[in-house]
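Chain and conformation:
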Amino acid sequence: MKFTTLLGVTAAGFVATAAAATSTKMGVEQPSSTPIYMQPVVQGCFSSSGDLVFNSTQPFNSRGECGQTICQAMGKAVGASTEGSKCYCGDSYPPNSTLVDDKYCNAPCTGYGTDACGGTGYWTVYNTGLELYGVPYANETSSTTSSSASSTTTSSTTTLAGGQTVFVTQTSESSTTKKSSTNTAGIAAGVVVGVVAAAGAAGAAILLIRRRRNRQIEEEHRRNAAVNAFFNGGSVKAPSTSGSNSISDSRLDPVMSQRRLSDGSIADNEDYSRRILRVTNA
């Protein structure tokens, strides 16, 4: 009788345990909370990976596996999981506008099924604990497609203690970024060339003006020299240094004007206007 009772109690316990296990909900997104130093903490469910870069697919993925063992070990401030097993790492959160309700992140983690590791097209994002404050959000235009298109990823494997293999990725600069840098360099070069050309044109104009002024000065000097030479070599004397502008001419002297310069045979005291009858002996 006692054995039958004990067996019934044991069976009821197994049934209760099975029922409790069945009632445990899988793939529940942990609520967002304040970052903790060196601990991966969920920061929300996002519909975009932003600038995060795919690292690896983990058969036993979890918040600790992706956020701490992989991304934190790489020195990344942010980690994220999607589709239960895929791990992403980066230095910024996805765009703040892509933050959605936690219900969309419902894929059970492959290493710890009660927690959610993103979903189909959704990412559970972690702060890895390396940078508690000041972690930026990606630009609003960032998306999974643009992230993959704007970067080239190189992967390598690293074996950690315990035999865990980690895929380390390295992102190179995209052609779009290079093109932007090239355009910026071209614009800067054009500005420099324009400034140099403008300076050269200004210098040439100044030089031309100076040459014209020097030529005018030389021509004026030649004219003055010619005038001085004429005054010094001719009958007209050059202006005196006393500043007088009058020209001395001997013909204008009052004394000289009353004096005859010629010695003719006609007497000045004779009147030659009247006819004089003269009688001579033939």
